[in-house]
Amino acid sequence: MKQITKECWEGSFPKTNVVWLIYLVDIVLQKKYEACNSTDERELRSFKKRLSSCGSARDCLADPIFRDLLLEEENVRPSAMPPL
User: Fold this and answer.
1) How far apart are CA 60 and CA 50, in angstroms?
2) In sequence order, which ranges of 2-78 are alpha helices (DSSP H)?
3) This protein's superkingdom (predicted)?
């Protein structure tokens, strides 16, 4: 983080969010969850490698791992949205 911010913590540094995402993926991989099979682990390790090339968390959303989780605006109708 210090390399990214150059110890100037007042600024905006979107790359630091990517560093946190890499950290979270590491935690998931270390915990060895029962629901996480070898295919899932392999996919997470691959995702972690791809994260390092992202400049911000927004860039990370373009990763194929999120393909089925995110909807494009034009495909979302208000009636299809769950109530808050």
Assistant:
1) 9
2) 2-5, 15-31, 38-51, 57-60
3) Eukaryota
